[in-house]
Amino acid sequence: MRYELYYWPGIQGRGEFVRLALEDAGADYVEVARRPRGTAAMSRFMESRSIKRPPFAPPFLKAGKLVIAQTANILFFLGPRLRLAPKSDAGRLWAHQLQLTIADWVAEVHDTHHPIAGSLYYEDQKPEAKRRAEDFTTERLPKFLNYFEQILDRNGSRVLVGNAVSYVDLSLFQMIEGLRYAFPHAMTKQERKSRRVLALHDRIAARPRLAAYLASERRLPFNLDGIFRHYPELDNRS
Amino acid sequence: MRYELYYWPGIQGRGEFVRLALEDAGADYVEVARRPRGTAAMSRFMESRSIKRPPFAPPFLKAGKLVIAQTANILFFLGPRLRLAPKSDAGRLWAHQLQLTIADWVAEVHDTHHPIAGSLYYEDQKPEAKRRAEDFTTERLPKFLNYFEQILDRNGSRVLVGNAVSYVDLSLFQMIEGLRYAFPHAMTKQERKSRRVLALHDRIAARPRLAAYLASERRLPFNLDGIFRHYPELDNRS
Questions:
Q1: Long-range contacts of range B173-177, CB-CB < 8 Å, 24 or more positions apart?
Q2: Do B90 and A66 touch (CB under 8 A)?
Q3: For residue B224, is it within any domain?
Q4: Could you tell me if residue A187 is inside a domain?
Q5: B121 and B75 fall within a common domain
Q6: Residues of A with Cβ-Cβ distance to B115 under 8 angstroms
Q7: What global pTM score does this model have?
Q8: Is the domain of A180 the same as that of A159?
Q9: What DSSP state is assigned to residue B124?
Q10: Domain assignment of residue B229, yes or no
């Protein structure tokens, strides 16, 4: 099946979590909004009165007649199809639970630079962003990293869920990539306590199809429009 | 099966979305943390080294040997068991997608009074809360309400998904309850544009088992510790 992925062009964003799974599996997919006039096509689709089940926001995936939105929901759907999910129902629920915790983490990262409103510029909420980022880097970032470190420890394995790489491992890889870009100082302080997470990151980066993707032009660089943004004033140096 | 629900006592919070499904279905469940020394039991459970798959945060549900966290994930699991979910896989993914959109909405409601840090008091982030609540009541609240109004319209039915009441309808009921408590002025302004959503709210409130629950002592009142909080200064009057 050829999947159609709809997401804002120009940033990695939430779409990247889906992309990593598709790329790692060598799946056949197209990025609809990266085509000429693709963003217009995406908006038309979302606003069309003929769509019975419209997404609230990108990313969304078309798989045959199905239209699926919400990043974690897309991955829950794709996981078994891409052989990136456990076989048992209990295992799939657990993988999904971890993915939802990552989704919460992503939202908190976003709010470090947009604590007041997504519709305002960063420059219009800078003092608030500094306060929120200070809390994020000193409280929340260690809490999330320590949680995933513990999950790896308790699983007694080189992956988060069961014995095989799942989409959750790919998503944790992406979190580390993004956090290192956005908060290099805060991350350096954490590295010593996150050895299992960082080792997982390195093993994921070395997977052949993923390494090829990361080196390709399809992998957009991080920038100041995405979810992970590097504003030095938000990166705690204390 | 007797389910065990773990959530902070004293507030409705995210646990309420699970509670409404259990109550509407007449399921057998216990509220572990509302028992004497229950909060300590909940913390002990979360911190125990013997739990292989620890939750990041409450609510979580024990169902036999399974421990499931993340509100939307719990409802995805419970839905079919409580006959509050569609039968088809596609229908269940769609219901879950809507539930995840509600989860995002809940997080935004929370951040109206805690835009800087969950670990700080409201009083320590009041100016930021006023700015965030202003954006929430004028931009985000109408966007979410209009979205669900549209879903009801497109489904051509009295429920959000398919032809039967699902857990998503119960959750939308709870959103309206909470929003009316927290933002009475902003909600009054929206009522005219949200007729389908409000009619759904009223039909859900009249379901016999749910009405009995809402009139019982098990239904805690909204208060200034929960997710939905009424601070008059955050309720847009313009």
A1: B173/B20, B173/B200, B173/B201, B173/B204, B173/B205, B174/B12, B174/B16, B174/B17, B174/B20, B175/B102, B175/B105, B175/B106, B176/B201, B177/B201, B177/B222, B177/B228
A2: yes
A3: no
A4: yes
A5: no
A6: 111, 115-116, 128, 132
A7: 0.98
A8: yes
A9: G
A10: no
For the stretch A182-205, pLDDT in tens is 999 999 999 899 999 999 999 999
pLDDT digits (tens, 9 = 90+) for A19-66: 999 999 999 999 999 999 999 999 999 989 889 999 999 999 999 999
Are B154 and B113 in a shared domain?
Answer: yes
B76 & B98 share domain: no
CB of A192 less than 8 A from some CB of B: no
Residue range of the domain that includes A52: 3-81
Please tell me which of the candidates A56, A100, A135 has its beta carbon nearest to residue B73: A100
Answer positive or negative: Cα dihedral of B148, B154, B156, B161: negative
**A228 in Cβ contact with A109 (< 8 Å):** yes
Domain count, chain B: 2
Residues of A in contact with B52 (CB under 8 A): 154-155
Partner-chain contact B131 A128, CB within 8 Å: yes
How many A×B Cβ pairs under 8 Å? 105
Same domain, A77 and A102: no
**Is B65 in the same domain as B94?**
no
ipTM value: 0.98
Confidence of residue A157 (pLDDT cuts 50, 70, 90): confident
Mutate to test the interface with B, among A14, A94, A116, A144 (most CBs of B within 10 A): A116
Residue finishing a domain among A81, A102, A118: A81
Helices vs strands, H then E, count in chain A: 10, 4
Angle at B54 between CA A142 and CA B110, to 5 degrees: 60
Within a domain: residue A42? yes
Residues B123 and B166 in one domain: yes
- CB-CB: which of B94, B107, B117 is closest to A135? B117
Distance from CA of A234 to the nearest CA of B (A): 13
User: Are residues B101 and B190 part of one domain?
Assistant: yes
CA separation for the pair A55, B97 (Å, rounded): 8
pLDDT value of position A18: 99
Which residues in chain B come in under a pLDDT of 70? 238
* Best mutation target, A17, A51, A56, A112, to test chain B (most B CBs within 10 A): A56
**Which pLDDT does position B80 carry in this prediction?**
98
Indicate the residue among B24, B59, B81 that finishes a domain: B81
Q: Chain A closest CA to B202's CA: distance in Å?
A: 23
CATH of the domain at A62: 3.40.30.10
